[in-house]
Amino acid sequence: MSKHHHLIPLAGLLGALAFAPAALAGQPPRDDLNPPPPDFYTCAATGPQTICRASLSFHEDPVMDDELCPDFTVVDQGDVRQEFVRRYDANGDFVERVKHETWTNSFWSNPLTGNTIPYTQRGTQTDRATVPGDLDSIRSTLVGENIYTDPVTHQKVMKSAGRTVIGPDGTLESSSGQQPFIEKFVFGDSSAFDALCAALAR
Asked: What pTM did the predictor assign?
């Protein structure tokens, strides 16, 4: 589950990357994986399947978003750690990738007032191909939580936590738990953002 990326998988904005592929034990990987993994993965054959792993760490430089609060642009930034596992079947076709993501030293800020709201975030995104080898057939499941805390009152001003499923065509198939980003950007109800935006605006 992503924070202001609306809990829907989007192309990653990686900024400056520092990655360290995890070492794998096992047989040498096959050379006909479909589609081949990005080159920062390390792969090994394990029985009939091939498993690839990778780690990424990067800082998201300030990102401007004028859709989050009605009266000002929100600036978001933080440090990100990602762990990836990618699986291929006995035919060498892609079947699944899992991303575990944690944000630290992260906050939203209001450039007009200088106020900041720190947040914590952790989540897991699981992408499964309904047709092996076809990335356009992926169904994505996102679970996790994202909590924003006012540094003045020490009160939680917004929480996003639950499970979301996105179909291969990008449509929302199901959602459970507290999902303020989905409520705002899919259903048009932004009330869950009121306390957070008020804290940034004061």
From this structure: 0.82
Radius of gyration of the chain (CA): 19
**Is the CB of residue 47 less than 8 Å from the CB of residue 27?**
no
CA atoms within 13 A on the CB side of 21: 15
Per-residue pLDDT reduced to its tens digit, 14-70: 333 333 333 444 566 678 999 999 999 999 998 889 999 999 999 999 999 999 999
Query: What separation in angstroms does the CA of 64 have from each of 70, 72, 134, 199?
Result: 14, 10, 33, 18
Q: What is the DSSP letter of 200?
A: H
Place of tokens 């499941």: 141
3-class DSSP state of 31: coil
Residue keyed to tokens 């809990």: 7
SS3 state of residue 180: helix
C-alpha 157/C-alpha 88 separation (Å) is: 42
**69-73 contact pairs (CB < 8 A, 24+):** 69/110, 69/193, 69/196, 69/197, 69/200, 69/201, 70/190, 70/197, 71/197, 71/201, 72/110, 72/111, 72/112, 72/200, 72/201, 73/111
202 Cβ contact list (under 8 Å, min separation 6): 113, 115
